[in-house]
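Two folds, back to back.
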Amino acid sequence: MAAKTIHRRPFTRFLLWLGGMLGMYFLITAILSLTVDPWRINNSPLGIDSFDPYREISETVRTGKAALANKGDWEVVIIGSSRMEIAFDPAHPAFHRKRCVNLAMAAATLTETVPVAHYALDRNPEIRTILFGIELGDLHNNSDSRKFTDFYNSPFSDNNRSIERTINQVIGGRSLANSIATIRNRSAGVVPKRNQSGLWIQPAYPPDLRAYVENAFALGHKEAANNWNLRPQDLRSEKVESLNRLIDRVREAGIDLHLVIPAQHALKMIHPTEDEPATMPWEADLLELVRICKEANAKPSKAPPVKLWNFFLFNEYTCAQIPKVDAENRRLSDWTDFSHAKTSIGNLAIDVIFSGDSAKDNTHGEIG
């Protein structure tokens, strides 16, 4: 028996050391997660506010945006895809210093943006205005962006994984890595890609905008545009129904709702191929959105009429000339690329949306 006892001691010591090291790891990770809170999701009283300007959520955008929605005191909410996330600034003067957050997310379609809106409404009883971005083509396309993003791993997803998410957020390896990165950002003064209000201030830029365009057309603009499938598709009833339910809820709450079709460059409206129409066949989507607004506004409500603003039009901003071949600067001042306008154009859109009170008398939806 004595020999067996001696034989077991090294293994017992190993287990004790292993348990102690794991305990130290969990303790250190938990302390950092709760104080640094790299995604703002833990919302712990131990959180240190001075870390907030340096918190980077770009690798887990859905989790980070859900954390922003959880603050619970927003009055104005911006929702949509990357086009809304880059162009629509929550600090715009038209919001009159109301607490405004940008919950738009890159690559999001209605399968994500509608749940995001419901999530924000559930947690922010003071919401009075919503700018809800919709991409033309979404209603006639079966694209489900949730499959290609971190949506199902975020609090936006009602999939009963809250306990697993909480454990990962407090003692997970990624939480430790991001906490350390946040501390490093603060020490070096590194600004994150998305600011404290959710605006994407550092999107990726093509190094040469003209080369970007030439390459897109050389590869066949047909392929690039086919993300929305240019050939006619059936209306997706599930998307229409989910949007209608959201609109009904918003109007029942007396909230001012603006459906926004964000700007893209005019080149995105042209499709120079032999076997497709000369312009994108997105008219069906626009007409459906007009119908949705008319039906919603026909119902009695204490809310202002739902307004539809279409900024995907031919105008002096969307028709900006691409750089010349011999130009030294091959960038456009108002665009990151031809799909994404900067805040300079987004600010103009916000100016139009809140330019006056005449739209309040329109019961059929406003077309910007």
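---
second:
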Amino acid sequence: MRLISVGSVESEHGGKTTGGVARTHSLLTKTWVSNPELGIEVVGVVATNTKLSKDPVTGVPYFSKNEGESQASALSRIIDENNPDCILLHHIATGWGWSLQNIPNLPKVIGFVHSWRITWEEYDSNFPKKLDFAKMAIGHLDSLLYHTNHCANEMSAFGIFPSCPISIIPPPLETGYFDEEDFTSQRESFHIVYLGNLLEHKNAMGLVKAMKNLDDMKLTIMGSGELEKELRDYIIENELENRISLSGHVSDEEVSEIFLKADIFCAPSRYEQFSLVYLEALAHGLPVVGYGPTIDAIRNEIGIECGFSLEDYSPESIQGAIKEVRSRKWDRVLLRDKVTSVFSPILIAKRFADSIIHQ
């Protein structure tokens, strides 16, 4: 099937922004290009966060709007010039989703909803603009993709009831290889790590407050965001500097080094669509404490216990979850092997390909 996808791309692939959507998009593209037997021929990508003309890794052409061109005109031109069988639209709550209504003779269109958060009133300064975009796009889709059931189930809260088929497929995970000795020998007992943006819904403050009564544990927080100063002030005011460190933004290599030294991963978000970081932590042998529906989804996929699913996101609940997780004996190699095999790029790309081709 000849496919054109629309969405942001990862920095390694020329993107100027980062995030789970870009990482998933680029990894799926790279895997399909490397494995043509999966049945997807990537004709090109409408890469929304780069000015490059092609993917520096795969060589796949990047398409974009011409100067003065509307998104509808651009997409119509790109379709006419490349004759795709299918359009895969990452994030439907965009101008590209809105443009579908103005394009005659559309090929098959698959909408990929990575999260509904982009349509929230507190997220969208022009609310309900992005929600309107999504509602318009829904009527022109042949099928919908989600990473989780709980995200798909949120549609009804927005008054969206699509008639098209819906598939639930988790994201692919790309990991490096860790030497067995390094993987098990460097662990620091009772060392918790957090990786994520320091935003309100990520609930890093809840984790920091939980640390007040975990006297024998230390915490490394990796990430930056609007709550960084508030977190730093709280740590100083409560004399937690010797046990909690704020590392700010760190490279992927540094993240991996810290993960391999840690004992438990905790990201007690009040909301996640999926969050690749839980998979990345598990791939480093870390049991995970986090957003309940996502941890449950991961557990169901890998078929073994992998951590603690939070239902209550208070400091007291987070503290109790950490205590329970650290009281168990974890087979870190098994965690790694399970998550890297079940979420391997080629297996997940095949699931996406089968859904796209057969719906």
